[in-house]
Amino acid sequence: MSALAAGLAGDLGGALEAIVGPLNVRRPPPALARRFAAEGAAPGGEPAHLVQPGSPSEVAEILLLAGRTGAAVIPVGNGTRAAPAQRNPGALIGRPRVFVDSRRMCHVLHLDETSLVVHVQAGLTALALERIVAPRGLSLGDFPPQVLGSTIGGLLSVRTPGKSSPRHGFIEEAVLGVSAVLADGRTVHTRVAPRRASGPDLARALCGSEGTLGFLTAAVLRLYRRPEARFLAAHALPSFEDALAAVRLALREEAAPAALRVYDAAEARAHLGDEVCPPGRDEQAILVVATAGPTDLAACDRDLVASAAAAMGGTQLDEKLAEVWWRRRTGQERGSTLPVPMIQVTASPKRQPAVYRAVRVACAGLGVGLRAHASRFEADGAVLFFTLMDGAGQALAGEPLEAARAMTEAAASAAGAVLLGSENHDLDPYARDLRRGLDPKGILNPGL
Amino acid sequence: MGERRLSQRESDLASYGRDMWPRLLIGIRAGELPPDRPHVVVWPESEREVAAIVRVARDLRVPIVPYGGGSGVCGGAVPILGGITVDLKRMNELSSVDRDEMVCDVQAGMNGERFERALNRRGYTLGHFPSSIYCSTVGGWLACRAAGQMSTKYGKIEDRVAGLTVVTGRGDVVHTDGPIRAERGPNWTQLLLGSEGTLGIITSARLRVAPTPELRVLRGFELESVAHGVEAIRRVMQRGLRPAVVRLYDELDTFINHSSILGGKKSARSHGGPADHMFAPVPLPAQGALPHIPPREHAAPAPDGLVGRALGLFGGGDTARRLASRLRREAVSAALSRPRLVNSLATPLAERVSRHGCRLIVGLEGSRIRTGVEASLVFDELERAGATDQGEEPGREWFERRYAVSYKMSPTFRAGLFVDTMEVASTWERLMDLYRAVKHAIAQHAVVMAHFSHAYPEGCSIYFTFVARSEPVRDAQRAYDAIWRDGLAAASRAGGTISHHHGIGMLKGQAMAAEHREAMTLLRGLKATLDPDGILNPGKLGLPASIEPAPPDEVTAP
Amino acid sequence: MPEVFASDGVARQLDECTYCPKMCRFSCPVSEASGREQYTPQAKMDRLNQLRRGHIPWTEKTSDPLYACTGCRQCTTQCMHGNEPGLVLLAGRAAANARSAGHPALAGYPERFRSREQRLVDILREHLPAERFEDSAPVGFWPGCDAIDKGLSDIDAALRLFDRAGATEVKVVAGGQACAGYPLLAAGLVDMFRWQATRVAAALRPYRTVVINCSACVYTLRAQYPAEGVALSSEILSLAEYLDRLEKQLQESAPSCALRSVYYHDPCYLARYAGVVDEPRRVLSRMVEVRELAGSRTDTECCGGAGLLPKTMPEVADAMARARLRQVAARGGGTVVTSCATCAFMLKRNAPSGVIVQDLAAMVAGEPGRSGPG
Fold it and tell me: By CA distance, what is C274's nearest residue in B?
């Protein structure tokens, strides 16, 4: 049965099978179906299918089918990212759902080793890409492993919150061009060039819009050569504030570390072992840093950080400590699974100490334990991560967490922090209008 | 708005009818003043006023053209359908510099050089040095995605924007990003940057600043050929090194501008830098207190020239003697009517006579320690790639005269020639093909040379400069149009972008279809959303004009 | 013939400006204060070029841009061609007058100039005791027309300084003129300028040295009088140069200064025409610390008072003066000293609160400063 006939017959599943083949159409896993049914829509009733296209033209056909049948198309990647809140759940009521899983479109279309650029399909996970290019001494950049679990399409569907890394920026800055299928089935390819001045950067319309303007099918990404040298170092500083000040000093000297993190004592013990901050050193902070690049330059960056640490009263620790951190960060070793920090804020250099102190004071007032670290440093700020614990050293959850969260976030904001996940709504009406223009039938991720 | 900030005076309207698009200058030389002009010019002093103007324009269905320094080279500020020209230059304040976050808030109408000097006084730099810095505005940079000479370190302007304040075509004042970085939705900052006044009027921006550099290192190198030079730059960039500026001149450019044969090095100095004109000249006794205005028909003689001298207008026109024989001038003219011949002779001539290959200028700046280390690594890498160190002086010379290129336009046009530039970019893999294809396309109509700059780990930009006769004017305009049509088509076919930093304006509108293909749907979608009535800078950026030309009587002062 | 004055040279300058991307625009205070494209040096010169080529007819409206200039030469110091829009545009004004296309605000200027002359001569005669005047003396003091009109107290201060320094050889120039003629050139009235110059030269001849407190007239006397065939045998000095000469005498009798520091504003006609930048600073720093404004010495920014701009475009002129002093207010206020009656007037008139403007002579004489027209 042709797709057209099947669609007209109301047999959505059949129509989908005609496009991608019967093996690639399934019932969506219950968790997924629940997630998209939970918000006010009656569960069950509407048909739901999980379909795995193998090419952009199959995606185009699926979108055209959705347009004819009124189905809602919801892209799913690797499921590694928490589903964003559905802003418009009513748009899903009464509509069949087609969950489109891009993971069969996972080829590397072209690796240009002259330009260090790779053209990949959107269903490839970043980790898989790293494994493919690593033997050639290449990498996407200094991104932590938890980020790499997503598909490329998933990574580009939202914008990375907070600050970036001094060397490689945000992952969306690695994008030189994208391909996407629009709601009307046409495929667009944005012009690939290192930089352009031929109008707005149209790729930036598609990236970050969670599939509502177009379904990402491929991306052209920058790669980096494996650095000639990498140095790891760890320093103990008298206090968290001193460690932050040391980072600021080093960044002012234009040090460009591959990764840099500051732990307060409690966090350092949890991540690196109790012996790193012996009892009685509860105010201490640990600074771990990896510098990479041409040997002399990486060494220079390492020395700039070391001088800055020394200037703030720090002492250098055994390199092995930094190695522990680095191995866990790059996924070579699994540490004990630690809870994801519940409070994540950005703050400018001047405000970071005040924010930390405010949160500590708030937690002390609540009788709640606190661990903190700072990373993703940039000239204009960093991200501070706070984990809240109960008296037994377990992570807070449920009701107590929510109560504590409200107080601590308020304290942090009052001290000048900006919560990650804050949004700017000035252009929302324009985003909606743009969607209506490009997707008049509202088939692309309409619940968002 | 009050009378002070609105004008319908003839002399004002005339001056807003053009920017620095060379095609307009070809006409001006022949006495054809630019035909397009606005019906009224306004000078708002706040965002609210800009928004009010947009709303009025919507009601009257009259086009709006935002205007900054008018230094664009693509006709982007020409009001082809008349209407209201909104001159942003009275919104020209640097309101603050935040040391903590290293950002500043600046209004769009502020002049580039004044902005940079104001930052310098506080110990900062934007790191953005376009050759038009003296005559362009911050808003113009943002609207066109401009690049400065040190973009390899500091990025293009779009890399330094933390947020924009824009008045959309609906009359709303919106802030993109800002202190809160948007995490969902399209990146509106990057969608409004480069929109050339067609999606909104940028009124102010939050830009990232850097501390003024403690150390600046400059050096010159020589390489055997363009291909060797390109490879050398690629190796430097892909090693993870980040010089502030890298400029590779092809053989012809090196011959004309950087070899001493045509006095390329010295001549620019000998006509004197600004310092020579510090104090007013003294008229001779009895010659008259004021200069003598020449009579109507009096045309200044062009500098004399061999073919090489004509080309040497790029290096030393101002030292050429005032007296030019008509014979020589016609020889130049004749030579330039056979550009293919000239091109095919010039390069091998350059290579043989000068025995220079290609000049490469490299510069680094930043914190003292790290810049020193990085500089050594860059120079080592270049030498390993086959470059010969020429020492500091070529680098210093380039730096001291880095804005001089703009002063070469005048002598060229006066001599009956026109000069223009085409800047494209691509990844390394396609770069040499791009170079050859575009050069070949332009060389059919003009003498052309090129340099490579604005390097990235993944690619580079190529800057072509071409010269041809500007008279008779119709022939010149035909040649001009052919150069752009063929050059940009060649660029698109070779996989490059049609503009790296000058923008599209009117000049490149027709090439937008090949540049973006189906993605033009997205641009049209943005236009329909942000400017539903089509009043913002119609006819630019390859977008069709959907509005009628403004009838003169209906445009009245609100 | 210095090339910028010759026909060929002017044709070259006009063409060079016509095709230029306006490289000097950032430095033109008229253009920056008004934001008008037509008032950039490029557009003004281009306008003159199109007029003289006959592409545009000469009318009051079309010649308007020629008057949007104070002749401050900031543009010239930036221009790699060395063009002189300041001087060329004055010639353009003369051409406009010849075609009855002069600026409407300057209608009947010859008559107005004559009656102003008479008025100012009378004011000075009344204000100063007769002993101050002398037809001939080793040193003749010429206050300049703006000083008589708007800065009498500064003239008094200067005379007190001469007394204090024991410079009894200084006498105020007697004669029926108050103005050395710069405004006539600024109005494009070259013939009348020559006529005035002849009369002034006659009055000045008996003095060995003439000390003049008008910055524009220093250049006018030194360079433009001889150019119009009017010979001057006297040494022409600005007041700042003369006070510098009186160093020893002034030092001995110097009053103490209550201020810790002052700013010095270089009049553009002293800095970029006459080359007088060190002398006023030497004079001042003998009594108080001198701080530099952003844009000082040969980079100084025009107060808006020259080129007859206050008559033709008063709002722009005032905006220029305000722009000049903005930085002082931004730094918390202070005292700005200048060495030109015109600058003093324009800056005082537009000084924001917290900013005090003083003439050099008044400062050195120990006058208390105040803002507002003197």
Answer: B279
Domain with CATH 3.30.465.10 in chain B: 94-177+187-211
Q: What confidence tens digit (pLDDT) does each residue in B259-311 have?
A: 654 444 433 433 445 566 788 999 998 889 999 999 886 665 554 444 444 54
Interface of B with A in 459-498 (CB under 8 A): 459-461, 495-498
Q: Give percent of chain B with pLDDT exceeding 90.
A: 72
pLDDT over 60 at C173, yes or no: yes
- Judged by CB atoms closer than 8 Å, whether chains meet at B280 and C24 is answered as no
- Flag whether B touches C (3+ CB pairs, 8 A cutoff): yes
The alpha-carbon gap from B296 to the nearest alpha carbon of chain A, in Å, equals 42
CB of C148 closer than 8 Å to CB of C178: yes
Report the alpha-carbon distance of residue C205 to residue C236 in Å, rounded: 11
Do A and C touch (≥3 CB pairs < 8 Å)?
Answer: no
**CA–CA distance, C4 with C45 (Å, rounded to integer):** 14
Q: Is the pLDDT of residue B402 over 70?
A: yes
Residue of B nearest to A254 (CA): B367
CB pair distance less than 8 Å for A430 and B158:
no
Domains of chain A with CATH codes: 3-101 (3.30.43.10), 108-225 (3.30.465.10), 227-338 (3.30.70.3450), 340-416 (3.30.70.260)
B24-B26-B32 Cα angle (round to 5): 70
- pTM for the model stands at 0.93
Which residue of chain A has the CA closest to B199? Answer: A200
Distant-in-sequence contacts of A29-34, Cβ < 8 A, 24+ apart:
A32/A76, A32/A79, A32/A99, A33/A97
Q: Which of residues 224-243 of B touch A (CB under 8 A)?
A: 234, 238-241
List B238's β-bridge partners, or say none. none
Q: How high is the pLDDT of residue B227? A: 95
Question: What distance, in Å, lies between the first and last C-alpha atoms of chain A?
Answer: 33
DSSP 8-state assignment for residue B283? P
Q: Which fold has domain B407-498?
A: GMP Synthetase; Chain A, domain 3 (3.30.300)
Do C335 and C298 contact (CB within 8 A), yes or no? no
pLDDT of residue A173: 87
Let me know: does C134 contact C174? Beta carbons within 8 Å. yes
Give B487-515 pLDDT, tens digit per residue.
999 999 999 999 999 999 999 999 999 99
Residues of chain B with CATH 3.30.300.330: 407-498
**CATH numeric code, B94-177+187-211:** 3.30.465.10
Confidence band (pLDDT; 50, 70, 90) for A379?
confident
Interchain CB distance below 8 Å, B504 and A297: no
- Dihedral over Cα of B471, B474, B477, B483: its sign: negative
ipTM above 0.95, yes or no: no
Among B460, B522, B526, most A C-beta atoms within 10 A, so best to mutate, is B522
Per-position b or e across A90-129, b if 16+ CB within 10 A of its CB: ebbeebbbbbbbbbbbbeeeebbbebbbbbbbbbbbbbbb
Which residues of C are less than 8 Å from B110 in CB distance?
A: none
Rounded mean pLDDT of A369-394?
Answer: 90
Query: B235 at the C interface (CB within 8 A)?
Result: no
> B298: nearest CA in chain C?
C11
Token pair 């960056």 is found at A301
